[in-house]
FAD-binding oxidoreductase
Amino acid sequence: MSLYEPAIATEVLRPGDEGYEDAARVFFATGRPAVVVRPRGADEVAVALAHAARRGLPVAVRSGGHSALGHGINDGGMVIDLQRLDAVEVLDRDERLVRVGGGATWGRVAAELAPYGWGLTAGDTNDVGVGGLTLGGGMGWMVRRHGLAIDNLVGARVVLADGRLVRASATDNPDLFWALRGGGGNFGVVVDLDFVAQPAPVVHFGTVTYRLDDAVQLVRGWRDAMRGAPDELSSTLALMPRIPDVPPTATVLLCYAGGDIPAVEVDAVVEPLFELGTVVRAEIARRGYAEILEDAQQLPPGLRMAARNVLVPELGDEVVGAIAELHATMPPKAIALRSLGGAFGRVPPEDTAFAHRDAEAMVLCGAVLPEAATETDVERAFEPWQAVAAHGTGTYLNFQGSATSADLAAAYPPATYARLVEVKRRFDPANVFALNHNIAP
């Protein structure tokens, strides 16, 4: 089917069409859009936006469909699904300049760059979309070595609400380029992004699992070990949900991106992590960067995941104690602490719309609830979270499971938010792109 434009026959799915039911589902939500379109280029994106404007259809833009709030779907509107815009093209081999379609996944990017011995620092899972994750910042396994995905972004092409295709870079529409780096999908449909890839022929990746005897002691030890670690080492400490009659455990997932060095040198770097507590299992191996990305795991039917996160400038003893207390509450919660600093922290906060560069760590909390749980049930489950959140200075919107005005206020300092509003007024004054962590013009 088409949108009935004479020159363009965009792939279109409507209720009743084969494939529609799958197209109406994203990782965390199911909707009932009036139409799902899958453009193959900027011109077809423009046609889709014009069609939505004529019919008065709200627009959702989907990259990989992993928004925690289901922003890649809607009811009764148009979904612009970018999955056909998934090309990965090397523009300049000497400069390691790579153009990535807005609908590509991180697994595809990693596989395409592997023959060159390159990698891009974002995406923990294969099927997460490049466009969505990048626009929110983009944390990955080399965040301390090479910063966020946006720190390696040098340009993007964007279809605006009026159908114009514009380029954003340090020299072309620099305000838009600034806003794209952390401001989310508020400004247009990003059809492709230009990155400078990093040499990453191999990394040393693995896990260390501990018996969780004392959560406070373990978190403090991990914090101190990462404070002394080189930038090449990134890690996440995961406190697994407490399950009755099952001994509690915690796991450090780590990636050393220091090149293909002898194993004995890697051992010296990660040794402090083996001293955090009683190790029950460990596996660290030399692997290609493309091999460390995993497939996202769906929850069993009847359950839903709710999540909150906070960026903390310092993992002081008070916040560590609050994390330990939170982990002991019901319903069972998984808590992940992602180490930051390094290259992530050396970017001036005003350089990108992601401004919280002083964060030592991100604390992420997830709770599994019945699918029928109401928002009141979710808020009740996260009441103990407030004691942790009180120590933060911001949130990482890509992992945020709520979208209140308070969440936006936490995500952007006042000066950053005011600047984003000005860019929004210039490039999307009618707020066509509103299904996101929305910055109203």
